[in-house]
Amino acid sequence: MVRFLLARPIAVLMVFLALMVFSVIVFRTLPISLLPPIDVPQIVIKVNYPNASPEAIEQNVLSPIREGLMTLNGLEDVESKAGSETGTIRLTFDYGTKMELAYIDVNEKIDRLTNSLPSDLARPQVIRINTNDIPVVRVQVIPKPGFDFTEISQLTENVLKKRIEQLEGVSLVDINGKKERIITVTPDKAALRALGMTEDNVINAIQFGNEELPGISVEDGQFRYYLRLATRVDSPHDIMKLPVTSEKGVTVDLARVAMVQYETNEVLGHHLFGEKEGLVITVHKQASAKMNELLPKVYEAIELFKADYNQVDFELTQDQSVLLNAGISNLQTSLLFGGLFAFGVLFLFMGNYRMPIIIGISLPTSLLISFLVFYFFKISINVISLSGLALGLGMLIDNAIIVLDNITRKRLDGLPIFEACVQGVNEVMSALVSSVLTTLAVFIPLVFLSGISGALFFDQAVSVAAILGVSLLVAFIFLPMLYHFFYRKKAVQEEKGDDSRFFKIILKGYKSLFKKVFSYKKLSFGVFILLIPAGLALGYLLQVEGLPPIEKFDAVVEIDWNEPIGVEQNKDRVLSILESMKGAYLKSETDLGVRQFLLFDGESSLQEANLYFLFESQDSKSLQMQRLQELVSGNYPNAQISVLDAPNAFDQLFASNIPFYEVRWKDLATKKPIEEGRMDEWLSVFPVKEFSRGPGLQKEASVIFRLDGGKLALYGINPRDLQEQVKQLFGVYPITDIKRFGEITPIKLKADKTNFEQILNNNFLRGKDGNEYALSNFISFDYENHYKFVTADKGGLFQSVIFDSKNPTAYNAEIINWAADKNLGVSFFGQYFKDQERIKELVSILLISVLLLYFILAAQFESFIQPLIIIATLPLGIGGAFFILFLTGTSLNVMSAIGLVVMLGIMVNDAILKIDTINRLKEQYSNLPVMEALDKALYEAGQIRLKPILMTSITTILALLPVVFSSGLGADLQRPLVFSVIGGLTIGTFTALYFVPLAYWFISRRET
């Protein structure tokens, strides 16, 4: 096949040019995003039920919804959490469930359940979680002084949002911090009482005046007309003209008994940029959009906004394209330095300028053609797939060097250039194919990891397979063609001096050390064998984590004041903190209280605040965060504060809302939460001393109103009338809405903002005797601590504690006995169990990888013993990587693990070619005595493969070395990978040069 193709160089060249042209076209259409569009198998249902307690939300809303959703296909787990006025249900599905269909099913079931839910409850909001839901950038909208906030909110909602949504590639625009305009009606209680009226008379007058007939029509001869009441109101002026009539028939204009005006609706949350209140717009991209093309469009749109809307200041924050740009920059750096160092190393070893040019052409060619595979597998260009390409670049250079070196060797043996190209490729073809297959055997099984990890590895596996497959195509066809083109006019005699003086010195040193190693075979082999457990033992000393610690200059502070404060008090506290830290940060933004984002799947309450800070340096960040913690804990001792690195897209994808280890229990007798006093007593004897209360055990202060039914009956007052008046007096009572052209303006009854005791004393109900009685006669109140949340899962209501221990299961038996004594059903839950399951899964997959590796090598060498030599080299390389990671204080994380795969792929490649060369030389010397032929084959194979092994290792190490001395997000991500590769290849080079021939010698001696 190689001979046939090389005999037609023009046809081959045209095919490669055509592939490159198609690749360029395809590359322009590939979506560019931060992460693959992964469906997280979770759906969140959010409920907002004003003025409802956690118990009422659980009983009346969440419980019916949970029961109605139990029959969903693929449903793995259900958890709900009811708080004051809000509730959430988190549905977790089996991975692989079609989330588009699951989302439709959930919405259909919610619609069917609507009739069984409270009539005044807004439809529950269903949120589907997807990696594309992570906003790519946040737009800060800050009203300038003197401009009305509600008008800026309307501008943001009706104009800015629409203009951003029209940008190509934008899927959704979300807003937080909006304020809406309402019409408030404030009754004049003295005037109402003087006229014998109540607030109900005012409410009825407004509702009647805003009534609309439901589709009634009349005939007038041949014509039909729809009726419309002329009494509909459109403004406060219209409302004040409405007639209010008492039970005795007294009628006055509403303006005489109430004040009507436009006001800003009561807000449950605020957004701050710095110390200024404003709005924030989050921009989400479509799955098929290119992030690097979308972000410039957003920046351009903001510049236009600044010119068009001078009543507002704009600023962009938290640009998530930084990570993607870092990945692309790292790939470009790898290509640039890979090419430069390949040129330098080849020149040092060969004194030749043609080889680097050939490799310089082949590298971008392979990379470009790989994007065709991306297109057919529907893979986007993202950080994961780019890291796969970077992973394959090392082996791509490796294959190119091996093929070119073997062709050169054949040429030096006196073969004509065409024959040298054909035989040079054929000789290493099977070994290179095996080396690629073994790399894929190590890597591709990781695709079968469950959950998000497997989905992420799919993109990486496809990109690795693509670049390695293309590299073989280029190495077997394109490289020999280029070699033929560049060397066709060069005589064989001219090539004899291609080995540089530098390489001759190295060769001399190699021969000297080789003789010493083989003079003490048993000792040398024993040293290598001892290095295996010693190197692997270092792995126990390494810290294990997900992503490497990245130097971040931004941080997020989450504060729960843990006090029954309102949103305005929350805002005042945050502003005082920002004021005390003024000048210590570059930027800050805060979301406090209840958030208005449609896609926000977390929980928020009036007492919570989420602050984001951007600092000049890591040191400044550490110092100021410590200062902030001291400030909050010193002034607000009840507050719970946590300081985190600002989450990027990786963190948001991998972040788990599951506690590490949670002990849950249910009261088997009552099926209700255990009362506070008894629970506190039981927790004092809980077997684990260091624990934190789960959401179902957290407490908050509450005011409890109790109605005196006896007095109500005595004075002839309907309890419903009393309840209705309480609703009107506390908060803002909705009367009706003015609807026109899609704009809705609520009309609400405004209550007195005074102490609730005064409200109870100053408001009255009329009894059956016609006299008025203060509400305080029928209502008593107490201050009590109650559970802040009510939590439930598939089995019903539960309460829990959370703890973190190296061996949490050690307490299980004691906890089960503790629960049994109290008639509690106990269960254990948490990330700990998922991690254990994942580790078992990973170990089994790696065992399968090693078996596949063995089968491929056994087929390659037609031996059951020789593959064991290559498998034995793997722990040596891993030990070398662990040694460098340990020396540099680097953790074992996702990136260092990828580095291990890169390093093992190159090590296996070198070992395969070394053994393949030894086997061929043994056949050549078959006429000699067995041991003499073996010694000669080992010695010559070492010299033949010395140059490609050294060039591959040195080129790869030098290409990655600049990352060690670089700074920034990209370098922080790649540095663990680089340390793994450098450590592994340093040991791996000596392994291929000395351990492989030693092991081969011992095995062959036993076979003979």
UniProtKB/TrEMBL annotation:
The chain crosses the membrane at residues 12-30, 331-350, 357-377, 383-404, 436-458, 464-486, 523-542, 842-861, 868-888, 894-913, 949-971, 977-1003. GO terms for molecular function: xenobiotic transmembrane transporter activity. The keyword Membrane applies. Keywords: Membrane, Transmembrane, Transmembrane helix. InterPro entries: AcrB_DN_DC_subdom, Acrflvin-R. It comes from the Bacteria. It holds the Pfam family ACR_tran. One of its GO terms (cellular component) is plasma membrane. The keyword Transmembrane helix applies. PANTHER family: PTHR32063, SWARMING MOTILITY PROTEIN SWRC. This is Efflux RND transporter permease subunit. It comes from Aquiflexum gelatinilyticum.
